[in-house]
Each structure stands twice: as C-alpha cells, then as structure tokens.
Amino acid sequence: MKVLHVIPSLSLKHGGPSVALPLIASALTQAGIAVTITTTDDDGPGARLNVPIGEKVLTDYGAELFYFRKNTEFYKFSQGLGRWLRERVSEFDLVHIHALFSHSSTTAARSALHRGVPYIIRPLGVLNRWGIENRRRLLKQVSLRLIELPLLRRAAAIHFTSAAERNEAVAIDESLEATRSEIIPLPIRKEIAEGDSNRFFRRFPQAQGRPLILYLSRIDPKKGVDLLLRAFALARRQRPDALLVIAGAGDRDYMDALRGQSDDADLGPNVVWTGFLEGDDKSAAFAAATMFVLPSYSENFGVAAAEALMAGAATIVTEQVGIAEEILRAEAGWVVASDAMALSDAMVKLLNERETRERLGKRGRMLAENRFSEEVVGRALVQLYDSILTGNAKPVARPI
Question: Distances from the Cα of 387 to the Cαs of 74, 106, 224, 393, 394, in angstroms?
Fold first, then answer.
C-alpha cells in the first residue's frame, strides 16, 4: 500500500504536528506501508528550513520526503507543491492530509478528488471554538463554509486524535456527523522514558536539589503559560522551594510579555526559561521533573502530556486538553479547571505527596504504552486504510 501524507510544515517551531507526523510515518513503515511525505520549507514566519527543494529525501524513519518552496506566509502557499500534487497524486492508493486552512491541504484534497484517490483529513485541532474565535475569526468562518467543510464532507474519513476533538468539530458544524470519523491517538516513542536527569542538571545547575514543575511545549497563547505563571506565584506561598521550568519557544513578543508577567509577580530566579528542547535534552527534562503541567486553554490531543505520561512523570492537565478524559478514566493524572487557584492547589498537593506522584507516574506510563505507542497507533491506522480501500466501514478497533 502506498500512502501519501501532506502537511504544510515540518518545522519543530510548530510543535506537536511536526513531532507527530514522523512518528506516524515510522509506525506505518514498520507495519509495511510505503510512506511518502510532502511539505514546504517553512520554518516559522519569515524563515525557511535549509533543505533540498523538490528532491527526494530518504528519512531515518523509512519514509520518502519532498520539500517545496513556501511562496507566501499566508496559508503557506507553495506553487511547487501544488504542481507536484496535481501531477503525482494518482500514484498513491490513499492520501492522508494533516491540517486545514492551508494551501497544501486544499490542493491535496482537490487533486485527490480529481484523480479518484480517497483521502483522510486530520484537522490538527483547528475545528474547535477557541481556534475559530481567536485566530483570524472572520476569515476562518468564511473559508470554513466555502472550502474546508465541503472538502471534509467528501473525505473518506476524518482522523481525530481524541473524543474531545471530534465533539468540538461536530459542535462547529453538525453536518460532520454524516462523514465517517475515527479517533486514533498520536504515537509517542517509548524511548522518551530513558532520560538522564543529570544531563538536565548539568545544563541547568540552578535546578539541582529543588522540586521542579515542568512545562514543556510550544509557547503560544492557547497553551496557558500565563495561567501557569499565576498559579505558580500562588503555589510559592506554600512551597517557596519550588522551581518552575518553562521549556519551549514561541513568538518573541509573546515570550517577552510572559517574562514581563513573571517579573511583575516577582518570580525572578524561581522560573527557568530553557528555550526549545529536543531529543536527549527533552527526555532529561522529563526525568528531572517532579511533575509535568500542561495548562492549555485548547488542545485537540496534547502531545506533550502524552510524552510526560510515557516518561512516567506525574502529570496535571486542564480540562481543555484532548486526552484529559482518558487520563481521568485511567486515573493516570490529575485534571483541573483553567483557574489559577485550582491549578495552584493541585500543584502544591502533588508536591507534598510523593506516593501519589509515584502512583500517577506508573499509571501514566501504562496508559501511554497501551494507547499511544507506535505499535498500537500503527495497527489502528493500517486498519483504517484497509477498511477504506476495501469498502469496509466498520469502526477501527482501539485498545483501551
């Protein structure tokens, strides 16, 4: 089976989606699927990746990868990618599209329709009220009605990564109930649990010997870092020894605003801003953490939270994180309201209860292995592809 995956960017500056797709491709290649990925050279606003353009790149996870020049920031328009899709989409059995409100997504879906190739769309969480109302509201509402919804309705399936994501999408437009949808989570590498805490402490010696509250994700208004800073200021009244580690990168102006908020709250050296962490440095941060917190206002899945669970870190998430319901059901972490006092109380309680942290860590790792491992996700995706190509529309089996 030959499957084409299309995504507007693989820049790690965009967080979860760029991390997830290579893991999806790895899971599929291990399951015997021939995977090709097309994307642009986007590396965030005004920046480009240093990659070969229009040439096949063989990845270390088994997929073929093609980059094309990003011609505009708006919708990441790429003339080269559009041409390639129109000419070559018929070479594939199925197209898996990642994102909406993007030139690559629209062109991929229309090219597949023209050539009679079935396609799946993974919306990346943009079909939620927060995203529609807080990001180019009027433009998105118009585009949704004229472009995205018609393409979604003609998809062979919509790939949601959590039940919460699906529920929000249907709340935006009830007509999506009529389109087949499957809930298949994103894969997480088990190796993230093999981190060396000493590596983190060597790089950030000011963290040595202090209880660490870790935030590790893209820094963006929807991620709730402002809420976390308010909650941490409250928590320090009871646990002045605690240290907040904010690991991630984001828009410079927004980062400056958050640092200003930290200074105004007199948090000073009690907050460590590590910048973007990846690979062994990311694993080391999870290993060093006393707990992990993801305080998002909107999150269709929560890759960082799933990584924390896999790493065995005691985890707190807000109710708006997509996998919050699964965490609750498995008693694998704590779920709180998007409220500074509620989050502060939870952090202090978890700092004070070592046995609870250890229990949550074990249950979190079990949940992640059973639901988010590459093997489990790979099998579910292959089953979805097979059912589409054979005309069998039975729901995909998902282990609990």
Answer: 36, 24, 39, 6, 7
